[in-house]
Write a structure and sequence with these properties.
By secondary structure, the protein is an alpha+beta fold. It has eleven helices and 23 strands. It starts with 8 loop residues before the first helix and ends with a helix.
Length: about 525
């Protein structure tokens, strides 16, 4: 890996993470910027779908990605591992909530954004969140979907059309029998047995995983990754079907899509009577230092930088006056998908490897507080007493009470999550009730951990039907579209949001294409 600067965390946050003050970046005319018709900010699920659908319609686009490419190699050393963590595990920060020691500052795959009330995680790199998630693809039920979106999105339309297309785009399948029954997945079988005893009817979820590659891991012909729970910083075996290797790869293969890496957008400014937009960027090196400030003049801009990226960018643009007509609700309606990390102990030994990523889902939809979904989560560290341990990521619903705030003095955006609000406490009570139910059905087990201090499912900030129209067009700006997880108001109906984000982005891009191809202003 390239040599990297050893900047202190405090010094680095002051000089880079807060962003270079825009007053130091002189605004050039649009004619001096590189001209593109369509610009996409972000290369995760939403950005990749946009690039592919635009290319299939015969339109060229430029994708800007703040992070690096992470190509899988036969040597199997693309990503950092828990056995040897380094700067590849953290986005431009020497600190990580998963590593006790300081790391080198490097444009790694996982941002850990310290908000007020929660640590919010987000992927960084070509492929976005698909590089670092646990690849579980679930469609929500109709009742909880309507609770999230109300009348703004039709569930039947999504179910009949867009979820079906999203499944085909991502490519997914549940864990096959031979993998499930192997020694690497003892914990998955234990989770099935214990949740079945509690009456929760567990099932194997569809996953964006190449199970043949997992078999090769088991056979020793691929780098062991998923079978030993190495997923959160990427899978060195290539078993994870991240979009850089699927949807975006198909888009780039058309020859109509260009991707610029290590390029982060810092501002968007209307020009030419709002007919075009000047997109101002910073290009960084492997230390996070700014080495160039490219600018692009685009006719259409699609925001696909994820809830954290898109919300922070738009709140800053509105409040510093670059996009003053943005709706007052931009920056509001944010939530954590009610993520709760849980670990139970006291069951028979099941920790030889704890294969992953997740794969088994159990739902407590009749919970007296809120519906709860549990996803088996690898927990490779055994308890001190030598028994087994089972991890699960719990998701439920709560009010989208988080909000972003712009500080003009620092040109920075902060995020506040009221972690002790009545709604958040009710969500914790719901998960506690479900865990108690499982423990009661499995004598000798108990809950070792249940907390909500970290979320990997950041949602909201530019909520559909509030801050933007049904196709993601921002109120006040006809050719600016939001198509990512920012559209989802705080929680995605007790399931991981990746499948819904993909489906919703496809729907929004389809509606946008109808306008673009007709040259509608």
């Amino acid at each position: 890996m390239p040599s990297r600067s050893g900047l202190s965390r405090r010094g680095f946050l002051t000089s880079v993470a807060a962003g270079t003050a825009l007053a130091a970046l002189p605004l050039r005319s649009a004619s001096a910027a590189e001209s593109v018709k369509i610009l996409i900010i972000g290369s995760g699920y939403a950005g990749s779908v946009a690039a592919l659908r635009l290319a299939q319609a015969g339109l060229d686009s430029l994708v800007l990605e703040r992070g690096r490419r992470w190509p899988i190699t036969d040597q199997g050393g693309t990503f950092a591992t828990p056995a040897a963590p380094d700067g590849r595990a953290s986005w431009l920060n020497s600190w990580s909530p998963f590593v006790p020691q300081p790391l080198d500052v490097y444009p790694g795959v996982l941002e850990a954004f310290q908000a007020n009330g929660v640590i919010a995680l987000a992927g960084a790199g070509v492929g976005g969140g698909s590089l670092v998630n646990n690849a579980v693809m679930l469609q929500p039920s109709q009742n909880v979907f309507k609770r999230a979106f109300g009348a703004h999105v039709d569930f039947d339309e999504m179910s009949d059309q867009w979820y079906t297309k999203a499944r085909a785009l991502i490519g997914m399948a549940p864990m096959p029998d031979d993998v499930y029954n192997s020694t690497h997945y003892t914990a998955a079988r234990s989770f099935v047995a214990e949740t079945t005893a509690a009456g929760l009817a567990p099932f194997r979820a569809d996953m964006a995983v190449d199970w043949q590659t997992v078999r090769e891991e088991q056979a020793g012909t691929r780098e062991a990754s998923l079978i030993i729970a190495r997923s959160i910083w990427g899978a060195n075996s290539g078993a994870k079907r991240s979009v850089d290797r699927t949807i975006l790869a198909a888009a780039e293969a058309t020859g109509r899509v260009s991707v610029e890496t290590l390029t982060r957008v810092v501002d968007v400014v209307p020009t030419n009577g709002h007919q075009r937009y000047l997109v101002r960027c910073e290009r960084i090196d492997d230390t996070g230092a700014v080495v160039a400030r490219p600018e692009y003049s685009a006719e259409h801009v699609f925001f696909a930088a994820g809830s954290l990226g898109t919300s922070r960018l738009l709140v800053a643009a509105r409040d510093r006056g670059s996009l003053p007509a943005l709706h007052a609700t931009v920056g509001k309606g944010w939530g954590t998908n009610s993520d709760r990390q849980t670990v139970r102990v006291g069951m028979p030994w099941n920790n030889p490897t704890q294969g992953g990523p997740s794969g088994i889902v159990a739902q407590d939809l009749a919970n007296p507080y809120e519906p709860v979904t549990l996803i088996n989560f690898p927990w490779p560290r055994p308890p001190a007493d030598g028994t087994g341990a089972l991890g699960a990521l719990a998701m439920t619903t709560c009010s989208p009470d988080g909000h972003f705030t712009y500080d003009a003095a620092t040109d920075n955006v902060s995020l506040t999550w009221p972690s002790t609000s009545p709604s958040a406490l009710r969500a914790t009570q719901a998960v506690t009730t479900t865990m108690d139910r499982i423990n009661a059905a499995n004598p000798g087990t108990s809950t070792l951990r249940l907390n909500a201090d970290t979320t990997s499912h950041t949602l909201g900030g530019v909520v559909l039907g509030q801050a933007c129209k049904a196709d993601g067009r921002l109120y006040g700006y006809n050719n600016l579209y939001v198509i990512d997880s920012s559209l989802i108001p705080g929680s995605m109906a007790t399931v991981p949001p990746a499948l819904t984000v993909t489906a919703l982005a496809d729907r929004c891009v389809d509606l946008a294409l109808r306008r673009i191809l007709r040259n509608v202003p």
